[in-house]
Amino acid sequence: MAEPELVGPSSRFYVSQRLRLHYVDWGNADQPTIVLVHGGRDHARNWDDTARVLRRDHHVVAPDLRGHGDSAWAVGGMYALVDYVLDLAQLLDALGDEPVILVGHSLGGAVVLQYAGLFPERVRKAVAIEGLGPSPAIVEKIQAAPAAERMTNWIGAMRKFAARQPRRYDSLEAAVARMREENAFLSEEQARHLTEHGVTRNEDGTFSWKFDNYVRSGSPYGFNASDAYSIWSRIQCPVLLVRGTESWASDPVKDGRIAHVPNARLVNVEGAAHWVHHDRLEVFLEELGKFLTEPG
Questions:
Q1: Mean pLDDT confidence for 210-225
Q2: What CATH number is given to the structural domain containing 76?
Q3: Do the domain assignments include residue 241?
Q4: Which domain, by its residues, includes 134?
Q5: pLDDT at position 1, please?
Q6: What angle, rounded to 10 degrees, do the helices at 225-232 and 107-118 form?
Q7: Residue 48 within any structural domain of the chain
Q8: From the CA atom positions of the chain, what is the Rg in Å?
Q9: Exposure of 73 by Cβ count < 10 A (0-12 exposed, 13-18 middle, 19+ buried)?
């Protein structure tokens, strides 16, 4: 008898920097492990459509980053890239010693590439959907501001976050509508799924997003491109970079960033914006499938 389709993954937890962090496990522990890392203000269950396909031949794991989904919020509200990389390192150590495949979107893509450069022996293949950070032009503009100005702006922003209360929606439908405002490419079904797993129901019957508002904060030091390029240069595994042609993200071939990632190739997906794995799921799965079956 054929194995029935799994309805959903199991929830599990691990610890990093004294934070109780959540991840979902789709089973098949005897198969090669593939870890799916979501982007900012997102959650692990955003990968469900991808995971249901990958689980046929892989042990699929998807973490909620600190401050996101069902993971703990960081005390003090600090969410630096290096903290997320540490959390991923802790998770992979908990999963075992075998090299894994990493797939990340946006912030998750940046985490994946950083980890792959720091621990190249632990990564078989890496995929980053718009995970290279801001374009060189944007980095140059940010860094042009004096350090004192960047620092005072950051302090002001953090004070505003301290006073900011999570928005409350009167109904789940209102939250779904807000989700579709954020990404017009989403179908009603996609938006509802993402919202159902992305909100918590408050005691008064309203709904609020699960993520900590402090995850919106950026570093006053900006994006250190030279450090990122140095770390990327250490990556030893094949890398697939994915970009939506209708996204705000610049083309890494045209702006030169792909030159800093060894063994990397770029796929531009037509008709997709920043969330390529939602906007053009079938195309993404096709490109991902080809990449995973390539030698290397």
A1: 90
A2: 3.40.50.1820
A3: yes
A4: 10-138+219-293
A5: 34
A6: 60
A7: yes
A8: 19
A9: middle
